[in-house]
Task: inverse folding
């Protein structure tokens, strides 16, 4: 008991810097009265005191590592206590936590011990045991270890719901500086292989109904923000490219948490949480609001404005697109109004089919009028002057909101 | 204008609605028997529950809404919110009058909007129960969990746990409403527990029935919960928004904090 307790403490502490905790997007029905069921909806079973979702048992298999990456707490030269689980221990913890409804499943990562294949083989063995011995249908997220053989990656894809390779450092030049033993090609190779395999399985599924699932929840990655000098534009361009070419389900951003001094990374007094939050908001605009990177940032503005969210920033830079007529304009334009989210925009479209909407309706539907009012026209609001000074609007909105602006929104999950 | 009194059951409430439509009257109010206070000058109609009439109301609204409205009405009822009966009546009236499924998306209609807001509250509470149920293993192999939801969501969560824990027997017990659901490896049934198996203040299973290994996994989980926290990112406001204090009572990972508080 005390031994396993100590291992769990060390190996969960070392795994916590991975922002991903998603358990959604995978369908794995409990068809044979086994244990567990994934119906596509993620569940956060608890939240830590930093406000982050606890959905999975997120641990490292081991924190022994042959690499020495400056940003990583488990780097070879860092003086920390080391530990390693056995396959049976991880399986037992997962099953018993799951049976008590503590978790949705397992997120197993690892330091690299001996070599890539040796490490990957252990991770695969855990997933295989859970699926085949325990008839476990909960969520499994494994790390794809760069340099692991295609055979092992393929097997991992069959037993897990998601695989991820973390890029961590958003440019190859910076990566060379902080992690000279790594390079982009090692990271991209498994990503390429897995997205190719997934496509192949999807294609087979069209012809053969019995084709097994391969990575039903796809791939994700993580970029560290603030450990290297990249601009927000560079970070978002990289993310956008990963969404398009690798068809990643998610890119996570992790504000760099300064962990013991290593002179290759900057010494920050606190993690850049607000910047991280703005990047997440911009990521949302790419994925759900049909924005392009060029609309969010340009040469004059390579970094996101920390004072206002990127959607408001876009509206203020493009006065010619507004006001939007709530009762007439397309869904796409209504979605671009600051203060109107996806849900409100859909409600506006479905409700205006029945009757003309006024500002009171909008308020009750959930539109944040103190933002939206400057960018829309609808009955109940004074007409916006065409030559409205956008700089004034920015000040008005900031003044009205700073009192209750949360320092960090919850965009994990 | 009459006040309609029903027996507190879902069928009873729907029977009132049926009676209102049959007599083409406008109700002053619809109240549960035990909360009804007699006043002078009031026209009071006591309506007995009639399963057949209740079913006709549900069939009627479902036929107009592609089978969606009856689920909403049941959720409104289980919310137990004050005056929800009149909202249910007005919601049903709006559905019948418009006679098209698109009415459910007209959020400029105050009753539809209110119903959708309550539905969202119910949905959130159901989701919270999916998340916050914490099973404890008993010696005989049954997994027990105590809950105290804001709304009466127990009838709506059994299916989720049945799919998930198909190979273990479990009980989820609502300590506020004094009933539970029990899955016996075949089906989910409603149960009442005469002799409570929980210590009702701590939520712990009674020591004489708890499984020997239970404490170990609780300790491991509590330990895990605290070690994945990143202190540099502490954000108590966000934490409380996600896990409001009223749910801490039965959360294993919050036990130490509860004791010290």
Result:
């Amino acid at each position: 008991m005390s031994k396993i307790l100590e291992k769990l403490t060390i190996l969960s502490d070392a795994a916590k810097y991975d922002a991903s905790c998603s358990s959604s997007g995978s369908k794995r029905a409990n068809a044979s009265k086994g244990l567990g069921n994934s119906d596509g909806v993620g569940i956060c079973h608890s939240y830590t005191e930093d406000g982050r979702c606890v959905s999975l048992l997120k641990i490292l298999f081991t924190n022994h590592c042959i690499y020495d990456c400056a940003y990583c707490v488990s780097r070879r030269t860092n003086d920390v206590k080391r530990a390693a689980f056995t396959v049976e221990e991880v399986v037992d913890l997962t099953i018993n936590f799951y049976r008590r409804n503590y978790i949705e499943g397992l997120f197993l990562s690892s330091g690299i011990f001996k070599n890539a294949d040796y490490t990957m083989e252990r991770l695969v063995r855990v997933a295989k045991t859970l699926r085949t011995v325990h008839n476990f249908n909960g969520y499994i997220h494994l790390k794809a270890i760069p340099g692991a053989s295609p055979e092992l990656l393929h097997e991992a894809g069959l037993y897990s719901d998601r695989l991820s390779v973390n890029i961590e450092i958003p440019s190859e030049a910076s990566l060379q500086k902080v992690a000279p033993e790594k390079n982009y090609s090692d990271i991209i190779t498994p990503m390429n292989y897995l997205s190719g395999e997934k496509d192949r399985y999807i294609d087979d599924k069209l012809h053969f109904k019995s084709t097994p699932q391969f990575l039903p929840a796809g791939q994700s990655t993580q970029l560290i923000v603030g450990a290297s000098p990249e601009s927000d534009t560079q970070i978002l361009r990289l993310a956008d490219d990963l969404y398009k070419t690798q068809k990643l389900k998610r890119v996570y951003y992790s504000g760099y948490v300064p962990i013991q001094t290593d002179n290759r990374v900057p010494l920050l007094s606190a993690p850049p949480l607000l910047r991280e939050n703005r990047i997440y908001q911009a990521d949302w605009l790419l994925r759900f609001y049909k924005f392009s990177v060029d609309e969010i940032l340009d040469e004059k503005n390579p970094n996101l404005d920390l004072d206002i969210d990127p959607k408001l920033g876009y509206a203020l830079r493009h006065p010619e697109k507004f006001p939007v007529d709530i009762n007439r304009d397309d869904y796409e334009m209504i979605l671009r109004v600051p203060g109107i989210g996806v849900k409100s925009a859909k409600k506006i479209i479905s409700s205006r089919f029945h009757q003309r909407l006024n500002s009171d309706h909008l308020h009750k539907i959930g539109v944040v009028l103190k933002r939206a009012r400057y960018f829309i026209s609808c009955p109940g609001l004074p007409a916006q002057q065409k030559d409205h000074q956008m700089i004034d609007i920015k000040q008005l909105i900031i003044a009205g909101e700073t009192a209750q602006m949360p320092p960090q929104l919850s965009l994990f999950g | 204008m009459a006040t309609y009194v029903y027996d507190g059951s879902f069928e009873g409430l729907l029977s009132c609605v049926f009676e209102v439509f049959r007599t083409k009257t406008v109700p002053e109010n619809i109240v549960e028997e035990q909360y009804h206070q007699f006043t002078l000058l009031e026209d009071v109609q006591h309506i007995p529950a009639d399963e057949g009439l209740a079913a006709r109301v549900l069939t009627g609204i479902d036929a107009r809404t592609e089978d969606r409205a009856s689920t909403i009405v049941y959720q409104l009822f289980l919310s137990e919110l004050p005056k929800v009966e009149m909202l249910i009546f007005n919601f049903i009236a709006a559905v019948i009058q418009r006679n098209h499924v698109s009415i459910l998306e007209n959020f400029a209609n105050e009753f539809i909007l209110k119903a959708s807001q309550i539905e969202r509250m119910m949905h959130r509470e159901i989701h919270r129960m999916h998340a916050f149920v914490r099973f404890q293993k008993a010696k005989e192999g049954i997994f027990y969990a105590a809950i105290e939801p804001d709304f009466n969501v127990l009838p709506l969560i059994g299916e989720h746990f049945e799919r998930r824990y198909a190979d273990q027997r479990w009980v989820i017990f609502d300590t506020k409403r004094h009933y539970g659901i029990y899955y016996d490896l075949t089906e989910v049934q409603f149960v009442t527990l005469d002799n409570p198996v929980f210590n009702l203040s701590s939520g712990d299973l009674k020591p004489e029935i708890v499984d020997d290994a239970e404490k170990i996994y609780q300790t491991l989980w509590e330990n895990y919960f605290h070690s994945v926290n990143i202190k540099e990112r502490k954000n108590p406001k966000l934490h409380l928004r996600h896990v409001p204090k009223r749910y801490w009572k039965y959360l294993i990972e919050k036990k130490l904090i509860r004791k010290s508080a």
